[in-house]
């Protein structure tokens, strides 16, 4: 049976603000993405997931929306979006949008009405509570720090915001809120988008009694394990509704961002019985120590935990976390890319990771993120060695610094260099496309010398073996096979330090 495109393909996580700026305001835009589609086709990815480009005051860079069905002028127009979608589809690339259902901007007309008076019909669209003992209604924390409650003097009640105070949480227990968000989905599905990445799904429902979270010995609680502020059983019913809407349009995909470090039964619970998320994002590779034994154990546990009807997925970078090359160190980049693109399941590749891009230090005076520390992983894509790395016109001021290393690390230079990380990523994507064992083969862990991660991808037509030396020393390979691709130039002899190899095993 043909695999759905989202099982077969690789998704490219594209941070629109930082991809390509065509109008010279220093911020990437939709026409910029359109202009680079040929490059993305050349690279060999299958779908792009676009970070939010809706109308927004940009206090959380688009995750604070004032109009879910229009494009912010910063990024272009609806016509620009339609053009981007048509051009992507013409090249066989799918387009996935970021859907942000948990909260809106404080400036959304819905919230303006809601806060205007306790009697307003929109009051219940958000979560309002009376003060308790002159303070917040309970001990819930915002992910961004501090209490999750802010007092609105006008009506004397607190509103809930799981993130910034400028991002009030919607009340998903209210049927009209659900319907409104369903309409948003239909608006984009009707326009032809290929699916959604749903932001922070585990926050959608809160405890009806607003009970305090139990605190650990440090007076904190871990969101992945929180009982009342998020992770409510009823969330699964909400996801079923979102899935029904998605499924009414053939061939679309529903991906969901869930808390980091979710215990596996909770993570895989979000698949439901193939009636909730197609792909609850598996962030674990961002957190487990980069050592063969730990990686092997997790990958195997996860592979086994994913229900038979469901499909795994893998992520090595995101706009919220320090970049792969910085977290793991430059030596590990190629083996990490090989891992991401040869595991069983859909890979999500974060823009720039295909170049081995590192975090760019952002001086305090240029910092933009209202939370701490996410700017360095969101800096402009380096296209050339020229001014502003070719991201925006030379006279423009990019919204974040481009970093010094674009002079040698940029798309143009790497595309022309057969030994570059970009060329290597392209070769991996090509291998994934042309070897059915990589897209649909089973995953089997293989015992290997210490520090080496080895696994097979078996398929009725071919068996592949992937060996990754995660150590800084050479290791003899006790495996036989025909080398198909290496992270290094030569594919014979012992594995070099940090070398990864894909081999075909003779039957
Ligand atoms: C998700 C997004 C993050 C955003 C947050 C609040 O975690 O990835 O960038 O700040 O949700 O919407």
Strand count, sense and closure of the main sheet? 8 strands, parallel
| Shape assignment | globular
Q: State the end-to-end CA separation.
A: 24 Å
Q: What share of residues are in beta strands? A: 15-25%
Average per-residue pLDDT, rounded, comes to 97
Number of helices in the DSSP assignment: 14
* Number of strand elements: 18
CATH architecture of the largest domain: Alpha-Beta Barrel
* CATH topology heading of the largest domain: TIM Barrel
Give the CATH superfamily of the largest domain: Glycosidases
Distinct ligand kinds? alpha-D-glucopyranose
Helix content: 25-40%
Largest sheet, order of strands side by side? 11-10-9-5-2-1-13-12
Q: Rg to the nearest angstrom?
A: 23 Å
Give an overview of the whole structure.
The protein is α/β, with parallel strands linked by helices and about 500 residues long. It has helices spanning about 5-10, 30-35, 35-45, 80-90, 110-115, 175-190, 235-245, 265-270, 290-305, 325-330, 335-340, 410-415, 420-435, 435-440, and strands spanning about 10-15, 45-50, 55, 65-70, 95-100, 130, 150, 155-160, 195-200, 255, 280, 315, 345-350, 440-445, 450-460, 460-470, 480-485, 500-505. It has an eight-stranded parallel sheet. A five-stranded antiparallel sheet has the order 14-15-16-18-17. Bound molecules: alpha-D-glucopyranose (GLC). Alpha-D-glucopyranose (GLC) binds near residues 60, 63 and 100.
């Amino acid at each position: 049976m043909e695999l759905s495109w989202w099982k077969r393909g690789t998704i490219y996580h594209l941070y629109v603000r930082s991809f390509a700026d065509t109008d010279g305001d220093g911020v990437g835009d939709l026409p910029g993405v359109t202009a680079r589609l040929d490059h993305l086709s050349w690279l060999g990815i299958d779908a792009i997931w676009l970070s939010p480009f809706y109308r927004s005051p940009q206090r959380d860079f688009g995750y604070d929306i004032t109009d879910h069905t229009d494009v912010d002028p910063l990024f272009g127009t609806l016509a620009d979006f339609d053009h981007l979608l048509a051009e992507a589809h013409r090249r066989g690339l799918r387009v996935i949008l970021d859907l942000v259902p948990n909260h809106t901007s404080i400036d959304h007309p819905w919230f303006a009405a809601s806060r205007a008076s306790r009697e307003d019909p929109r009051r219940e669209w958000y979560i309002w509570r009376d003060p308790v003992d002159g303070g917040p209604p309970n001990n819930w924390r915002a992910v961004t720090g501090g209490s999750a409650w802010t007092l609105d003097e006008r009506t004397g009640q607190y509103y809930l915001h799981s993130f910034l105070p400028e991002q009030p949480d919607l009340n998903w227990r209210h049927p009209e809120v659900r319907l409104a968000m369903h309409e948003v989905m239909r608006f984009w599905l009707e326009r032809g988008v290929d699916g959604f990445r749903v932001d922070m799904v585990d926050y959608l429902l809160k405890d009806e009694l607003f009970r305090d979270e139990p605190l650990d010995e440090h007076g904190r609680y871990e969101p992945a394990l929180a009982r009342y502020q998020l992770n409510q059983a009823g969330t699964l019913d909400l996801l079923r509704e979102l899935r029904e809407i998605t499924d009414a349009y053939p061939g679309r995909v529903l991906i969901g961002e869930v808390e980091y470090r979710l215990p596996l039964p909770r993570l895989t619970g979000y698949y439901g019985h193939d009636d909730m998320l197609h792909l609850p994002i598996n962030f674990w590779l961002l957190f487990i120590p980069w050592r063969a034994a730990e990686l092997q154990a997790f990958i195997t546990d996860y592979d086994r935990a994913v229900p038979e009807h469901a499909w795994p997925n893998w992520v090595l970078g995101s706009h919220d976390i320090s970049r792969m090359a910085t977290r793991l160190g430059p030596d590990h980049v190629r083996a990490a890319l090989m891992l991401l693109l040869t595991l069983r399941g859909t890979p999500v590749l974060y823009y720039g990771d295909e170049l081995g891009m590192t975090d760019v230090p952002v001086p305090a005076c240029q910092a933009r993120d209202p939370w701490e520390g996410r700017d360095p992983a969101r800096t402009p894509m380096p296209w050339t060695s020229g001014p502003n790395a070719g991201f925006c016109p030379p006279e423009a001021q990019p919204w974040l610094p481009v970093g010094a290393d674009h002079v040698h690390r940029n798309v143009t230079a790497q595309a022309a260099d057969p030994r570059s990380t970009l060329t290597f990523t392209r070769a991996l994507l090509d291998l994934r496309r042309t070897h059915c064992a990589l897209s649909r083969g089973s995953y089997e862990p293989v015992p290997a010398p210490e520090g080496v991660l080895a696994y097979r991808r078996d398929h009725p037509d071919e068996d592949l073996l992937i060996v990754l030396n995660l150590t800084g020393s050479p290791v003899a390979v006790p495996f036989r096979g025909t080398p198909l691709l290496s992270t290094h130039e030569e594919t014979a002899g012992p594995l070099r330090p940090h070398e990864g190899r894909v081999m075909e095993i003779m039957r």
